[in-house]
From TrEMBL:
Membrane topology per record: Lipid-anchor
Compartment annotation: Cell outer membrane
NCBIfam families to which the protein is assigned, alphabetical: outer_NodT (TIGR01845)
A single GO molecular function term of this UniProt record: efflux transmembrane transporter activity
Main location, first listed in the record: membrane
Gene3D superfamilies, per database record: Outer membrane efflux proteins (OEP) (2.20.200.10)
Record PANTHER family: OUTER MEMBRANE CATION EFFLUX PROTEIN, OUTER MEMBRANE PROTEIN-RELATED
InterPro entries xrefs: MdtP/NodT-like (IPR010131), OMP_efflux (IPR003423)
Ranges in a coiled coil: none
Region (Disordered): 267-288
Source organism per UniProt: Pseudomonas chlororaphis
Keyword Lipoprotein (UniProt): yes
Keywords: Cell outer membrane, Lipoprotein, Membrane, Palmitate, Transmembrane, Transmembrane beta strand
Name assigned to this protein: Transporter
Amino acid sequence: MHPPPRFAVLLCLGVVAGCTVGPDYSEPNVALPEHFSAQTSKAPQVAAVEADLATWWNAFNDPILSQLINRALGQNLDLAQASARIEQARAALGAANAALLPSATVSAQAARARQSLETPLGQVLNSAPSYNRNGSAYEANLNAGWELDVFGGLRRGKEAALADYQASQAGAIATRLAVVAQTADLYLSIRGLQARLDIARHQVDTRQQLLTTIGHLYAKGLAAELQLNQTQGSLNQAQATVPVLQAGLDTAMNALDVMLGEAPGTDSARLTKPAPIPEVPGLSDMGTPKDLLRRRPDLIVAERRLAASNARIGEAMSEYYPKLSVAALLGSATAVSGANLFSNGASQASAGLGLRWRLFDFGRINAQIDLAKGQEAEALAAYRQSVLRACEDVENAFSALINREQQSARLAQGEAAYAKARATSLVAYEKGVVSLIEVLDADEHLLAAADGRVQAQTESARAAVATFKALGGGWQRDAAEARVASKRP
């Protein structure tokens, strides 16, 4: 005995239900070295404090820096935009999930009509006995429909939406890291500029005192006018550096306020008092280049976008195959009165199986598949390039950190030597052994050495920030993944 046709249809659907067209995704392999070249060729100076990569900014031991970063994480508007993008991706994933489920709608209507007796229809009907020109209609229905994802096009769409959602999550973390790093960078720049301003103002005071001394000697005829003019010119040159540094300081403070999501000038009073440039913390373990694939959120973004583009190939290929759907209606309709709407005689029902097949549209489908494959190839190249650039970021940042530390140490030694030379030349000048040119020259060298030492110290701290950022420091992957899983639709 042959089974009824409907069972044959269900059997066929059950056989092919597990079919999902398109390529299955596998994370690409990128050839990377076992270690960073900076790890094998050089080693940073041993620091007093080693940083935890997840909260590296606390290792600078600067409470103001930590407070500013916490405020930026709570108020920054780039982070607010990233959070909004997550909600958009979450909504898209919810829509992709819903597409796999049956849908149902409830509809109801009630109508009251009055037939005209002046029309041909009205005249014919009016000739019938007991014709009532007033009529009513009542109807209530439950409509249900379900697209059977036989060939997996909807499942591929869900796969792409999920990858996009995960990319938005990782993108928000990447934005978070950028905000933390930029906030720290601006703060360190502010402290560096304040230190340079202090040196410049001290140099102005020193040259002002020298000018006063030369002025007294000139009034007594013990100094030439040339010496007086040379001292005045040197003072003016030192004074000219102050406005430039002050402008840079104002710009950095305004940028920091914007980073905190506040109007420029909000925190200027709080940071007006200079403070030392924080000491650079060390890093016990940089990890390997392969660790970047898990630690750098921008690489996770690129990899998830690649996964999404791969899934969209299958979504496009599913258009080759027929789309099957089932629909059903259960309801009641009557033209008598609302009281009879739910009686047995008023009930109505229907069921159907739908088929949609783009049978003569394969040329357009081929174009859509080619487009999806091209986008996947672009995403793969972008991912590989992102990995290489991430390694480049680490190498450059680590090299800058090492060399800036060495530069800072050498300039500190040079500054001490120039300070002694300046004191010696001033004593010699007062005794008439050397000319004023030697004193001014020693001043110039001392100023340049002190300013260079502060710049190198600032750049060393900024290079440390860049290193932590390049390594993907500033978040815990396991904790972040747990939060993502708990919020996943």
